[in-house]
Task: structure prediction
Amino acid sequence: MGKKAIGIDIGGTGIKGALVDVKSGKLLTDRIRVGTPDGGRPDDMVAVVRAIIQELRVDKSTPVGICFPAVVQHGVTKSAANISSEWINYDADAHFTKSLKRKVHMLNDADAAGFAEAKFGAARNQKGLTILTTLGTGIGAALLYNGTLIPNSELGHLTLNGQDAEKLAAFSAKEREGLSWEDWAVRLQAYYSLLEDLFVPDLFIVGGGVSKEHELFLPLLKLKTPIVPAELKNAAGIIGAATLAVKDA
Ligand code: BGC
Result:
């Protein structure tokens, strides 16, 4: 068995964590999931993360990686599209490290998923530019060039038809507006065409919970770039956060 680390994936609706073998990318425990506290405020989130780490019963030397639905630059959270605005310019790394009494490594959630897919999933050995997008409450994005992550790309906030792209094309838009798969696919077509025009990628990977149902919408898209579902499903963020925590330890 390789080295172990905890990965925590903080989302707008749930906070998930597990112990990961970072050599194989396999989960060593069940995924623990706790609902995100109402309001998504820092202290309440830290309390949930602490409880998950306690439940995993690991010693203090086990690295902890935490991925988060916002820009994270050098450990500081810089944006808050679907969480409390208290996270804007918040030294999350220092705060989590102090409150949990252990070193943590913080990063963006889509970046964690992208890194995991490059190491263990759909972008393994992929050359050139890969763009991973997560379709959930928002749209997360990770840019990978020859397997190297370029962090905080935030492509969910490009302007599409005069609106913030994630408001129009995230999975939450489909649910909120009761769109059929076909109607949602029209918006995805516009979104991925825009990404294609701007970046000319070699591969798109689609993650987020809805990627389980990829057969219902990916075949409806007509793109020049191959587009495939993520392979690591809902564990990608956990695996990427844990793996990068070790790299960083
Ligand atoms: C945030 C990103 C995040 C994405 C998915 C967006 O609203 O700006 O940082 O990766 O949602 O959670």
Observations:
- The mean pLDDT is 95.
